[in-house]
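README: folding subset

This subset contains proteins for which both the sequence and a predicted structure token string are available. Records are stored as plain text. Below is the entry for Xaa-Pro aminopeptidase (424 residues), shown exactly as it appears on disk.
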Amino acid sequence: MPFHDREFMSGTRGTMAVDWEERIDVARMREERKERALERMRDAGLGSMLLVSDPNIRYVTGLAMTGGSGADHYSLLLEDGAVVHWDTADHASNQRYNCPWLNDIRYACPGLGNVPRASGRDSARSFLLRKMAETVVDALDEYDLRSEPMGIDVDHGGLHAAFESQGVDLRPDDCAAVMADARKTKTEDEIECLRQVAAVCEAGFQAIAEGAKPGRRESEVWGDAVRELWRHGATVHGGYLTSGPNTWPKHQANTTDRLIRPGDLVYADFYNIGYLGYRSCYYRTFSVGEPTDAQTEAYETARDNLYDVLEEIEPGKTTAEVAAAFPDMEGEHADWYGADEHWQLTTNHWAHGLGLQLYEVPLIWRGISPDHPVEIEEGMTMAVETQEPAERQGVRVEEMVVVREDGVELLSQWPVEEMTVVDH
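--- output ---
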């Protein structure tokens, strides 16, 4: 299938707010996301949904949660579209001033995560869970929704028991299905966020192309790239850079202090770079000096494997049909790994959904897709990735795309036809 050709002037237009052209409309994006979740919640017969997962909270409220500290923030979406949000004292106080689209913000009780874990007492943990549940039940009573089914997006037996002891009809499976369905296709503003984060990643690639010289450490070059990402308004939640023998098999998601040398391949993994919360997954491989024949051949194999898959992605096809375009066990170099089945080769060749987190629906992978297919839909956004060994090193390439009616649109634009050469 041919690739989607964007309309004139469609694409990233800058990271700042202006009044003289339309860019990302954040208010519209917040409202459209909430309406999607609300419509599906009503269809599922739920009167409310308690959201504890940071990406789900952001999807419905627009709040940029810091994460990492457990359930010291949570949101309740109600059937009339109202939202009750609980947060720490400082955060809640700021949100009351800075987030006028939310008009019911309360102080949270951290029933999950680091606070109860650090308390050192089972009695304290029980108190925090009970109090957290009570804050939500009080809101259900105030909004006359106590008797209606409530979805919940966290699987925690203790919290579930705390709600059930107060007569709440919990529906965790329904909530998971509602949020997955709401988030699996993206609005145009969400797509523009992903297009923008791809552009920011390309600023990082440029820093690597200019700085990956012999004698510089991986960590120095990665630092240059990260500085560029932050400079352009991104948040850096992950990613790494490796070189030489650290590129095959790929290193343990760590940038090291290894010195880059002539003849090295340098692999940059911009995953979990965020712009307005929307996460990238975007790989490129660089050659320090002209690549060898083996390196060029490996790169061409990885690139061709990638584009063979991209050409199969279209609405109406299943993930099983698309996954068949990925390399078979021989192409996966399964013998090298000592692997017998595709499920043992996680992350080597696959495509995964992109959005407010990695990973989202769909997942296209020989490890599960043939037996558990999902239909590809217009508006899905995903990253497609492949890799290939080159003697004692390796290459990886990845594109970020959105599914359009007439083929995928490439959100990523760093040159891919040939490997980028770093002169020195």
